[in-house]
Write a structure and sequence with these properties.
This protein is mainly β. It is built from two helices and twelve strands; from the N terminus they run βββββββαβββαββ. The longest helix has 14 residues, at 90-103.
């Protein structure tokens, strides 16, 4: 909750209470967290969650924060009693969400994973298809996402890709790599 207090005139104060509203559900460090649009982060197991007006995230996809990235909240936080300012890249999250909405992919995905590969952030989106799934890897810059996601859709429309578990890697210049995986792979179907 955010509290704003202002003095209207000497001796008269106005206090506004703005409740926290979950924007994204975040899976990080083996736990589930809520992230507000203002960058506040708290555990889904917080002692006061029962009294907030909304107990689920506004956005559908779960945001998975990779273990190889800096901690989004300070370590040692009492997860059942604390709300902390997060270091999550809020503007970029909104850019990624908007780019995925514009491409038509946002409504089809179940998770967005942010991870690091060779010192660069990678955005992975998971689209579940019954049976099967598609994990699409993208650079964290949305500059070419429209073109790349259109090309991915064309690849997936080809016969022979249905019902499989695929990784589609668009992070290489000038090519898109498609790999079939088995669920027993370490890189299998995550949340």
């Amino acid at each position: 909750m955010t509290v704003k207090m202002s003095m209207r005139k000497p001796g008269f104060f106005e206090i506004d209470f703005i409740p926290l509203e979950p924007w994204f559900m975040v899976f990080w460090s083996g736990s589930e967290w809520f992230l507000s649009r203002g960058g506040r982060m708290w555990s889904v197991h917080h002692a006061l969650n029962g009294i907030i007006s909304q107990q689920s995230a506004i956005e559908g996809p779960v945001l998975v924060w990779g273990e190889d990235l800096p901690d989004p909240v300070p370590s040692g936080l009492s997860i059942e009693n604390s709300v902390a300012d997060s270091s999550m890249p809020l503007e970029e999250l909104q850019l990624w969400k908007t780019a995925l909405e514009d491409s038509g992919h946002y409504r089809r995905i179940s998770s967005i994973t942010i991870q690091s590969r060779e010192g660069k952030r990678i955005v992975e989106i998971l689209e579940r298809k019954d049976p099967g799934s598609v994990r699409i890897l993208l650079d964290d810059s949305t500059v070419n996402w429209t073109t790349l996601l259109r090309a991915v859709d064309e690849i997936l429309a080809q016969s022979g890709t249905g019902g499989k578990h695929l990784i589609v890697d668009t992070t290489y210049t000038g090519k898109i790599l498609v790999r079939v995986i088995s669920l027993s792979d370490d890189s299998g179907d995550r949340p």
